[in-house]
Write a structure and sequence with these properties.
single chain, about 300 residues, mainly alpha, 13 helices, globular
């Protein structure tokens, strides 16, 4: 008899069922005035993008919607926290920009004339940084990953990435100047506040618990890919290495700057969803079946806990 893990991970109904459950949870949160529906709309759009990135680059060799379904379930569990305040919209918007970046970025694999696509890819990072400046700290890592995993980082590609990052600031600065905003450059470069390193004062327990849970799942996904990643194509392994480094970056930055733990956890969730989706779809043992059931039950229990408390 097939295990429940394989039944669900290869089912065409996994995505619509996950989407329906997500809708129910966000509707309940909306009734309790914990959220608005704009973050939910962005969440669903990002979920579709996660499904598309899996389809475009064959991140999972078999038919599976587990990457997109895992994203919906995990992100709902974390971002539905009542006391997260206005971070929900920013967090989901950053996720949307980042997954769009990854779709463009992955399409540059071994494409030596990728400067045009790289410009559009890093344009999404620039747009995200208008709402969350600290995401710019990931750029040196992305340049390194470009050289190691994607294409040689020549001068044209590097300058294209810089222009893509700066283009949103050019447009916004021009807009501020046209409407006569005083100190436009200071307004544009604000929100670079840093708190004391490792200071979790003022961070809610629910967010800390969500961060720990997400980091644990990231560790599970990383161990799985280290053990089983050799079975994938070289291109797929390169892409999962990028997911791993983004997850590690988000884990470290959330520890260093805990006041932004919600957004860093949201960034981490994109990578975690891809790695856990691969884990669910590409394993089929008694123990991974137990792990699948445990993770699924825990995710929805965490959602209920964050929704109620």
């Amino acid at each position: 008899m097939r295990r429940i893990q394989k039944e669900i991970s290869t089912s065409r109904l996994s995505w619509p069922i996950a989407a329906a459950i997500t809708l129910v949870f966000w509707f309940i949160a909306w009734l309790e005035d914990n959220v608005t529906f704009l973050p939910f709309v962005l969440l669903m759009a990002t979920g579709l993008m996660m499904m598309w990135i899996n389809h475009l680059f064959a991140l999972i060799k078999v038919f599976s919607r587990m990457i997109a379904s895992s994203y919906l379930a995990l992100t709902t569990a974390v971002l539905i926290v009542p006391d997260i305040g206005g971070e929900q919209l920013r967090a989901v918007f950053v996720q949307f920009c980042l997954v769009t970046f990854l779709i463009l970025y992955f399409s540059c694999y071994q494409y030596r004339k990728a400067q045009g696509v790289m410009l559009y890819a890093f344009l999404m990072i620039g747009i995200a940084s208008l709402f969350f400046k600290q995401i710019l700290l990931i750029i040196p890592l992305l340049w390194l990953l470009t050289s190691v995993c994607m294409v040689p980082l020549n001068a044209k590609i590097w300058l294209s990435s810089l222009f893509g990052i700066g283009l949103p600031y050019l447009f916004v600065f021009t807009y501020y100047m046209l409407i006569g905003t005083p100190f436009a450059e200071q307004t544009l470069m604000s929100n670079w506040e840093f708190c004391k390193v490792f200071s979790f004062t003022g961070v809610s327990k629910t967010l800390v618990m969500s961060y720990i849970a997400t980091s644990t799942l990231s560790l599970v996904g990383i161990i799985h890919l280290i053990r089983e990643g050799h079975k994938d194509k070289v291109r797929t392994r390169m892409m999962y290495q990028i997911f791993i480094f983004i997850a590690v970056f988000a884990i470290i930055m959330a520890l260093i700057q805990p006041q932004n733990i919600a957004i860093y956890t949201a960034i981490q969730l994109l990578s975690t969803s891809a790695m856990i989706g691969h884990f669910f779809a590409m394993t089929d043992t008694k123990y991974t079946n137990y792990a699948f059931i445990t993770i699924t039950v825990f995710t929805y229990l965490l959602t209920f806990y964050n929704l109620i408390f």
